[in-house]
Amino acid sequence: MSLDIKQLDHAKRHLTTSITTLNHLHMLAGGVDSLEAMTRKRQYGEVANLLQGVVNVLEHFHKYMGIPQIRQLSERVKAAQSELGTQILADFEEAFPSQGSKRPGGPSNVLRDACLVANVLDPRIKQEIIKKFIRQHLSEYLVLFQENQDVAWLDKIDRRYAWIKRQLVDYEEKYGRMFPEEWCMTERIAVEFCHITRTELAKVMRTRAKEIEVKLLLFAIQRTTNFEGLLAKRFTGCTLTDKRPESPLDPTNPFLEDEPGEDPRKPKAPDNPFHGIVSKCFEPHLYVYIESQDKNLGELIDRFVADFRTQGPPKAGTEEGGAVLPSCADLFVYYKKCMVQCSQLSTGEPMIALTTIFQKFLREYAWKILSGNLPKSSSNSGGLTISSLLKEKEGSEAAKFTVDELCLICSILSTAEYCLATTQQLEEKLKEKVDKVLVERINLTGEMDTFSTVISNSIQLLVQDLDAACDPALTAMSKMPWQSVEHVGDQSPYVTSIIMHIKQNVPIIRDNLASTRKYFTQFCIKFTNSFIPKFINHLFRCKPISMVGAEQLLLDTHSLKTVLLDLPSIGSQVLRKAPASYTKIVVKGMTRAEMILKVVMAPHEPPVVFVDNYIKLLADGNPETFQKILDMKGLKRSEQSSMLELFRQRLPTPPSGADGGPSLSFSAPTPEQESSRIRKLEKLIKKRL
C-alpha cells in the first residue's frame, strides 16, 4: 500500500509540472505572436508590459532548449527584441535627426512608451538613445561657440553657462515627461555640456595662451566654479563616472582662525561632485596666476618697507609700542586669500608652486622688515666716566639704544614670534589643502628657523645693550683702590649706576614684551648669564683688596644679587615670583662671587687652613682661579709659590675612573645658608660702623 501511495505522489507531481509547463508554453506562444504583431503596429505601451512577461516565461524553458519548437520560440523572441531596438532607434532618429536642417520634433506618447521598452531591451539601446538625443540637443552649442567665434573667448564665458541654463529649462518644459525619471536626462545633458566645454576651453586657451591675463583667468575660473556649485545644488552627480573627491569648496579660514559663527561640531558639507568638471581645464594656465602672486607679493613687501621708512618705528608710550607690526597681519591675510583661491583652482602642482612663493616672501619679510630694521649702532653714546663714578655722580644715559629703539626691538621680537606661530599654522593648512601625494613637499621649517633667528638676535641686542650700559660701572669697580678703603658704607657708586640702568631698561622691555612673557624670561636669563661671569671677572681685577675693601665688595655683591633676583618684576606694581630656573642661575652665580670675597677676607695664615677653606668654599680645583685669589689678597710671588704648591697637595684625589678636571665634587652651600651668612655679615658691618 505504501508503494502504491508513493507512485501516486510521483504521478501527481509529474502531472502538475506538465500542466504548468503546458500553460507556460501556451502563454509563451501567444505572447510571441502578440509581441510580433504589436511591434509591427508600434504599440510600445503594450509591448513594454508584454515583453517583460514573455522574457520571464522564457526563463522557465532554458532546460528544454533542445526541443526544436521551444528553440524556435526563443529565437522569435530574440528577433522581436532586435527588431524593437532597431525600430525604436529609427523612430528617435526620425523625430530627432542628427544631421540636416530639420528642427527636432516635439515629444510624443509613442516615444515615451518606446523609452519604457528600451528599459527592458539590451542596455546598449538605452545608451544609444541617450547619446543621440544629447548630441542632437547640444549640436547648436558647438556651432555657436566655435573656437573662431568671438563669444568663445574667456571674457564671454558667462554666455556659455547662460545658454545651457536656457536649454535645460527648455528641455524640462518640452521633454521632461518623455524620458523615464531614472534616466536623469537633465543631469546627463548638463554633464555632457561640461565635458564639451572643458575640451573647447582647453583648445581655445592653448591657441590664445599669450592673451591670457590673470584678471581674465580669475574671472573665468570664478564664473566656472560658481556654475559648478550651481550644478551641485541642482543635481546629485549620480551620472558621473569619474567622481573626484578632491578639494571641496571649503569656506573656512585656512590658517588664522575659523570663520565667525561656524560651529566646529557641525559636520562639514559633502564634497561637490562637479568640482573641476569644467575648471580642470584652467590648471595648465595657473602659472599666470602664480606669477601674478609673485609680483603682487613683491610689491606688497616693497610697500611695507616704504611705509616703515615713512611712518617710522612704533613710538614708546603708544599703543603700537612693542606690539606686532601691522604689516605682518596684512601679509598673512593676503596669504590666506591666495591659498583659499588656489586650493579651489587646483590641489596639485600649482599649490606647490604657490608654497614656494610663500617661502620666498616669508624670508624677505624676515630680512627686509624685521632684521633689516633692528638698530645696529648707538644713537646716544653718552655714558658714565670712571671719574664721575669715583666721585659718586650720576652721569648721562649710558644705554646704547633710546627708549624708542628698545620699543622697536621688542616690536620686531613680538612680530617674529607671531610670524613663527602663524607660519607653522600655514604649513599645516597647506598640507590639508594639497593632494596627499604632495604633502611631503610642503615644508616651511627653514622659514620658521629664520623667524627664530630674528627672535634670538632681538633678545641678544637687548642683552648687549644692558650689558654695555653696565660695562663702565664694572670697569670703575676694578679701578677703585680697594686697598685704601677705610670703612664700610652704603653700596658703592658703581652698584648704584648698574641698578639705575637695570631700572631704566628692564621695565621698558618687560612692558613691551607683555604678550610674550617667555621671551622676556629668556632675556632675563641671558642677561644674567652674561652679567654674572663678567662681574666675577672684574672682581678678580680688584687687587689688592684690604679686609675692609672686601667687606664693602661683599656688601655690593649682595646688593646686586638682590636686584638680580628681583629683575623680572623690578619697577612693576604687580609683584610676580621669578621663574625657578632664573632664580637658580642668579643664586648659583652670585653665591660664587660671595664665596670668592669670603676667601679673600680669610687670613692666609696658617696656609693649610686657608687652602682648605678655599677648597671648601669654592670647590674649584683650577690653579689659575687660586692664583687670582692670591693676587687679590696682595701676596708676594714667593708666598704665592708655596701656597700654590700646598694647594696642589691638598686637592682631594678624584675617584678612580673619573676624568681629572679642575672642578671638585664639593657641594656648595644652599641659598638659605648663604642668605643667613650675609645677614650676619651685615650686622657685623653695622656694629663696626
Brief synopsis:
Residues 664-673 have a biased composition (Polar residues). By secondary structure, this protein is mostly helical. Helix content is 66%, strand content 0%.
Structural summary, described in words:
By secondary structure, the chain is mostly helical. The protein has helices at residues 2-41, 44-58, 68-95, 109-120, 123-137, 139-144, 157-175, 185-207, 214-234, 287-311, 326-345, 349-370, 386-390, 403-433, 445-479, 493-512, 517-541, 547-565, 580-601, 607-618, 623-633, 637-650, 671-688. Among the domains are: 20-121; 131-241 and 273-277, no CATH class; 281-451, Tetracycline Repressor, domain 2 (Orthogonal Bundle), CATH 1.10.357.50. The termini are far apart. Mean pLDDT is 78; it is low at 242-270, 379-399 and 656-672. The protein is 66% helix and 0% strand.
Overall pLDDT level: 78
Architecture of the domain at 281-451, CATH level 2?
A: Orthogonal Bundle
User: What amount of the residues lies in strands?
Assistant: under 5%
CATH topology of the domain at 281-451: Tetracycline Repressor, domain 2
Cα(first) to Cα(last) distance is 143 Å
* SS field, number of helical segments: 23
SS-based class: mainly alpha
Q: Give the overall shape.
A: elongated
Q: What is the CATH C-level name of the domain at 281-451? A: Mainly Alpha
Described by strand count, sense and barrel closure, the largest sheet is:
none
Radius of gyration, rounded? 46 Å
Number of strands: 0
Give helix and strand order, one letter per element, not per position: HHHHHHHHHHHHHHHHHHHHHHH
